[in-house]
């Protein structure tokens, strides 16, 4: 099993991801939102690139049947029900609902992964469960970091290192590219996640907007054993 890392969706090569399993990470905060919402009983999450696509889909399925969520520049979109805060996606709010979501980075990474063999939604919350699933599949893996506005982010990268480290605890039958080895090494040296990601530009943005409770939630290891999969344009757990 070969494990590679792509640091932002801008570096995706459609031919390269064909036949491989992809794990999309947007730790702060899109994939953390998706995993949290599914854990709290939503019917499904459907990611979109644009606000216009979300509104069109809401009209199609009926506004009463869905929740509109997401952000632009880390802030709630006007007219939407929820922002990109995982703490808003409670059981009381999302249970049984379809969530239509668009974000600056995470939904872009997911939609750009179409063409891969399978696409999983990962974050720190389900990092151990993702690792177990990938070890069971035992096929080539690409971990795709969503980044921020096309730039590398250390929060996604250390989450990647965490997942790789968990895989290595399950099996030694893995081949790591240099960037995968680097991600794992950085995690091994910085298991205090907040101490490391506090240096990230995006962390500073979260702090500026008083979103530190979201960050604290996003750093909870082994929070859930759910492994959501993006399949046929829907994110579900089968």
UniProtKB/TrEMBL annotation:
Pfam family, one: 2-ph_phosp
Cofactor: Mg(2+)
InterPro entries: ComB-like (IPR005238), ComB-like_sf (IPR036702)
Keywords linked to the UniProt accession: Hydrolase, Magnesium
GO molecular function: 2-phosphosulfolactate phosphatase activity; magnesium ion binding; sulfopyruvate decarboxylase activity
The protein's enzyme class: hydrolase
Transmembrane segments: none
Catalytic activity line of the entry: (2R)-O-phospho-3-sulfolactate + H2O = (2R)-3-sulfolactate + phosphate
EC assignment: 3.1.3.71
PANTHER family in alphabetical order: 2-PHOSPHOSULFOLACTATE PHOSPHATASE-RELATED (PTHR37311:SF1)
Family: Belongs to the ComB family.
NCBIfam families: PRK00886.1-4 (NF002055)
Designated name of the protein: Probable 2-phosphosulfolactate phosphatase
Species assigned in the record: Clostridium thermobutyricum
